[in-house]
Amino acid sequence: MFQDVTRLYKEEKDNVKVTLIESQKILPSFDYRLQSYAEKKLNERKNFKLLNAYVTEVLSNGVKLKDGTFLPCGLVVWSTGLAPREFTRRLDAKRNKQGQIVTDEYLRVISDKSLNSYAVGDCSSIQHNPLPCTAQVAERQGRYIAKSLNKEAKSGYVSKPFIFKSQGMLAYIGENKALSDLPEFKLKGLPSWLLWRSAYLTRLGSWRLRIQVPLDWFKSYMFGRDTSRF
Q: Using CA atoms, how far apart are residues 145 and 151, in angstroms rounded to an integer?
């Protein structure tokens, strides 16, 4: 966002300031060395400030912090935790304190006595074994359900409990730098950014997208992003 504004409104670039407020450590699920690297790189940026604080109120002209400090601003971008959708809230199913549907180790809704209902992804939580609400978990659960149902329909196959093994985490921190927290190794900076880009391409569902997306990246790199559709 900062790069887009300074490119489109050069005369205002010295007036644009970004403050990132986080009540705890940024990227708490990453290795502490990668966290420190991210904090260091963010603090090195011009007109950028990383602030460890609690926001208690968002007003039309700024935000108020827990210690009473008022930060004036023209735009607030709020990133918060997940909340259940209206559809899942209306379901007659046992839920945890976060509003997620509770399942057993086979991803079956435990409040359904017939055990013919399943819940996967962010809307659910395995009893006694909660997992992070990430796309990686949801994708694995979806594959598990599809495989189990197909096998059970053909041969009476009895599924094994769902087991999640993390493949690691990737995060982009701007300016062609990223973090890679993988079981085998930790990586940061430009090499991690290249890995992040490559991993993203492998998750695209068709060759058309695998060709189109790199072309879009190249156009954005050469001419900047198209902000007319934001």
A: 10
